[in-house]
């Protein structure tokens, strides 16, 4: 981060924080490289409530999409494979695809599976788990409505999950997105976290710290406009 380009970026890191609507223009000014940078949120939650650990794991359909191309793999019965292909899945199969995955052939960015095929796929936890590719009902990636699951994954579905230290990282779009569309995606993330707060019976605040940045830009402390 010591390049001449980076040193020319806005010096004020705004340590006290500011709200999203005021920061987004500053973030975009920091996008000085040639590619379309992602706009990313970095959040830290209070991941312990008394003696219980809080684990956030859910998916959100961003209303403005992600701006990213996602290659979808689907493991399902023969009768549903055409539905998966019609919905836009690039890699589709049944038992033969499970064997390919077993051998390390992971030619997809996200994997969706039907409930009846999941017991077979669950045995491949050592292959899929470390890559974050194991389907999960909470994330909408274990579903018998294959068409909807694939379309959601293609249209802008993102995963929200915290690590053991309570950190969450999620992209809300690209620099080329309008401020309005980025705001819609940002609000969708906050709504999902507010719902997870209720589901986990969290007393007090869930989010401890929040920051926003672009792929190659500076990080700015983010002040949430509502208590979550």
List the helices and strands and how they pair.
Layout lengths: L3 H4 L12 H10 L8 E8 L2 E2 L2 E2 L3 E5 L10 E4 L2 H10 L3 E3 L1 H8 L7 E4 L4 H4 L3 H4 L17 H10 L1 E5 L5 E8 L4 H21 L7 E8 L5 E2 L7
Parallel strand pairs: 5-6, 5-7
Antiparallel strand pairs: 1-9, 1-10, 2-3, 4-8, 10-11
What does this entry look like structurally?
It is a single chain. α3 links the parallel β5 (72-75) and β6. The strands form four sheets. A four-stranded antiparallel sheet has the order 9-1-10-11, with helices on one face. Strands 6-5-7 form a three-stranded parallel sheet, with helices on both faces. A two-stranded antiparallel sheet has the order 2-3. The chain has two domains: 13-65 and 158-221, Ribulose 1,5 Bisphosphate Carboxylase/Oxygenase (2-Layer Sandwich), CATH 3.30.190.20; 72-155, 3-Layer(aba) Sandwich (Rossmann fold). The chain has 228 residues and is of the alpha+beta class. The model has no long low-confidence stretch (mean pLDDT 91). It is globular, with a radius of gyration of 19 Å. It has helices at 4-7, 20-29, 78-87, 95-102, 118-121, 125-128, 146-155, 179-199, and strands at 38-45, 48-49, 52-53, 57-61, 72-75, 91-93, 110-113, 157-161, 167-174, 207-214, 220-221. The chain has eight helices and eleven strands. α3 (78-87) packs parallel to α7.
């Amino acid at each position: 981060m010591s390049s001449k380009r980076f040193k020319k970026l806005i010096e004020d890191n705004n340590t006290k924080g500011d709200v999203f609507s005021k920061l987004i223009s500053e973030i975009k000014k920091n996008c000085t490289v040639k590619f379309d940078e992602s706009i990313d949120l970095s959040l830290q939650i209070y991941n312990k409530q008394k003696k219980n650990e809080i684990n956030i794991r859910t998916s959100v359909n961003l209303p403005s999409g992600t701006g990213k191309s996602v290659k979808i793999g689907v493991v399902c019965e023969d009768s549903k494979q055409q539905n998966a292909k019609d919905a836009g899945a690039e890699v589709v199969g049944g038992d033969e695809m499970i064997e390919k995955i077993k051998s390390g052939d992971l030619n997809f960015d996200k994997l969706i599976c039907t409930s009846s095929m999941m017991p077979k796929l669950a045995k491949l936890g050592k292959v899929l788990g470390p890559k974050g590719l194991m389907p999960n009902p909470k994330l909408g990636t274990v579903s018998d409505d294959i068409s909807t699951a694939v379309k959601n994954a293609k249209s802008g579905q993102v995963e929200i999950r915290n690590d053991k230290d309570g950190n969450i990282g999620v992209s809300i779009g690209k620099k080329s997105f309008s401020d309005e569309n980025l705001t819609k995606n940002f609000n969708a993330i906050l709504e999902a976290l507010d719902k997870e707060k209720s589901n986990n019976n969290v007393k007090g605040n869930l989010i401890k710290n929040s920051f926003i940045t672009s792929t190659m830009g500076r990080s700015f402390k983010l002040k949430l406009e509502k208590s979550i």
